[in-house]
């Protein structure tokens, strides 16, 4: 049985989780506390998730995990990728994670169930973002750039069951972004984007975070 070690908030972990859902492959999902450095270091030599454990092996790197599962079964990510999607995903990363990280820090994720786990996350991430409280106090206009990006995404979606018509790694990267975006309350989803993120959530077996959104 495959074991996948993740943080529930982690977008790279969402990518690794997706491939199990898309293959309909059973696996054990294990959430580590955010301040547990010893467990991942013992497995892959550094404090980084996701990690896949199988047959006594440990594998880090989300896209390596995806490639491994694809090779072990009948591949499902058989479609081409499109540069427009790569470009959209890259342009969205900065504004998305600036708004996502402070919200993740307040959310009831299992990796933050201890005070020390949550404090570890805040301490580490605020080094690059600045104070989370400053970002959360920016007000609704702080989301206008993300809403513009969502409106630009709509015409790029060719099919609600696969962004380019056939599943590809674009769907992995795009859904990971949409999953993180779902923690941000007040975003406006064009119909195509709404239909796509719901369809992909069901197909991958990964709930969106709408109910936790702040
Ligand atoms: N390149 C890695 C990146 C994984 C990554 O950045 N994971 C983050 C969580 S989102 C992590 O474990 N960071 C260390 C920490 O949070 O302490 C992958 O794709 O698997």
Question: Can you characterise this structure?
Answer:
InterPro entries: GLR_AS, Glutaredoxin2_C, Glutathione-S-Trfase_C_sf, Glutathione_S-Trfase_N, Grx2, Thioredoxin-like_sf. It holds the Pfam family Glutaredoxin2_C. It comes from Acetobacter cibinongensis. This is Glutaredoxin. The protein is 52% helix and 8% strand. The protein folds into two domains: 71 residues, Glutaredoxin (3-Layer(aba) Sandwich); 130 residues, Glutathione S-transferase Yfyf (Class Pi), Chain A, domain 2. It is α+β, with helices and mostly antiparallel strands. It is built from nine helices and four strands; from the N terminus they run βαβαββααααααα. β3 and β4 form a beta hairpin. α1 runs parallel beside α3, α4 packs across α5 and α4 packs antiparallel against α7. The relative contact order is 0.16. The longest helix has 24 residues. The radius of gyration is 17 Å and the shape is globular. Bound molecules: glutathione (GSH). The site of glutathione has 11 residues, from α1.
How is the topology of this model organized?
Blueprint: E1 2-6, H1 11-23, E2 27-31, H2 38-44, E3 51-54, E4 57-59, H3 62-72, H4 83-106, H5 115-129, H6 132-136, H7 144-153, H8 169-181, H9 191-204
Parallel strand pairs: 1-2
Antiparallel strand pairs: 1-3, 3-4
Helix pairs in contact: 1-3, 1-8, 4-5, 4-7, 4-8
The structure holds glutathione (GSH).
What brief labels describe this structure?
single chain, 214 residues, alpha+beta, Glutaredoxin, Glutathione S-transferase Yfyf (Class Pi), Chain A, domain 2, 2 domains, 8% strand, binds glutathione
């Amino acid at each position: 049985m495959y074991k996948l070690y993740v943080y529930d908030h982690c977008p790279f972990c969402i990518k690794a989780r997706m491939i199990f859902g898309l293959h309909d492959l059973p696996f054990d999902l294990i959430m580590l506390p955010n301040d547990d450095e010893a467990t991942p270091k013992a497995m892959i030599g550094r404090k980084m998730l996701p990690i896949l454990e199988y047959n006594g092996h440990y594998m880090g790197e989300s896209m390596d995990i995806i490639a491994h599962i694809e090779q072990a079964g009948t591949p499902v990510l058989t479609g081409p990728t499109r540069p427009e999607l790569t470009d959209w995903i890259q342009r969205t990363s900065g504004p998305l994670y600036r708004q996502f990280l402070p919200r993740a820090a307040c959310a009831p994720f299992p990796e933050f169930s201890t005070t020390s786990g949550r404090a570890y996350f805040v301490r580490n991430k605020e080094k690059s973002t600045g104070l989370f409280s400053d970002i959360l106090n920016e007000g609704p206009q702080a989301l206008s750039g993300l809403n513009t990006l969502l409106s630009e995404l709509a015409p790029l979606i060719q099919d609600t069951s696969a962004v380019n018509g056939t599943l590809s790694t674009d769907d992995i990267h795009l859904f990971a972004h949409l999953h993180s975006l779902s923690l941000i309350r007040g975003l406006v989803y064009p119909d195509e984007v709404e239909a796509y993120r719901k369809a992909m959530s069901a197909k991958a077996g990964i709930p969106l975070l709408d109910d936790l959104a702040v």
